[in-house]
Write a structure and sequence with these properties.
The protein has nine helices and five strands, in the order E-H-E-E-H-E-H-H-E-H-H-H-H-H. With about 210 residues, the protein is an alpha+beta fold. The radius of gyration is 22 Å and the shape is elongated.
Length: about 210
């Protein structure tokens, strides 16, 4: 996990291990766009109230390693304490943002307590709309890049494309784009195959 990089990271923090007045100091300490929600009404499976915790999203301008991101989150820890155990990259910034108040399909199916939108606090110019646009642009650029990989390397089989992407790229967005646009990429692979001379197709067993 230490070599994973992402722009958006989310962590679960426990206030008893955080610095005093963390809410008023948060923006100055992390110096990054942030959004959080205090979960003080969650119910465990045993119908007991879960310990109060905070879901916090931090946003970087560029991809940041797990270790570097975790160190920023950990700045909110009280002396000689650790306010969180781990952080996770946001695969979908919108889903992570909606989860802060339990406004996702999975939360509704699990009947999780729905927090009010006013309880979702943001600061330091956090802009969910802007992040979504950037994410879509990034995915479009990745999609075009993979399309050029298919063309330039004359890839004719989707499984060969998967092996290529899996070998050369560790960022989750490449697998996400490959999965989302698999039909498009498969057609490009078939297009390369159709352009092959008959002799080459015969050599390949077609």
């Amino acid at each position: 996990m230490s070599d994973v990089k992402a722009k958006y990271w989310v962590g679960v923090l426990y206030p008893e291990n955080m610095i005093p007045d963390w809410e008023s100091k948060l923006g100055d300490i992390v110096q990054l766009p942030f959004c959080y929600c205090v979960h003080d009404k969650d119910i465990c499976s045993e119908l007991e109230q879960r310990k109060t915790h905070i879901h916090l999203i931090l946003v970087w301008n560029n991809n940041t390693t797990y270790r570097a991101a975790f160190n920023v989150f950990n700045k909110l820890s009280a002396p000689d304490k650790r306010c969180l155990n781990k952080i996770e990259p946001c695969i979908s910034i919108r889903n992570s943002y909606d989860y802060l108040i339990h406004n996702t399909d999975s939360c509704r199916k699990m009947n999780k307590y729905r927090y009010d939108e006013s309880e979702r606090i943001s600061g330091n110019l956090f802009d969910i709309g802007g992040y979504e646009q950037v994410s879509m642009l990034e995915k479009t650029l990745v999609c075009k890049y993979i399309a050029m990989i298919i063309k330039d390397n004359n890839i004719i089989n989707f499984i060969d494309l998967f092996d290529y992407i899996n070998t050369h790229f560790e960022e989750p967005v490449y697998f996400e784009v490959l999965k989302t646009y698999s039909g498009f990429f498969d057609r490009l692979c078939k297009g390369n195959f159709l352009k092959l001379p008959k002799e080459e197709k015969s050599r390949l067993g077609y």
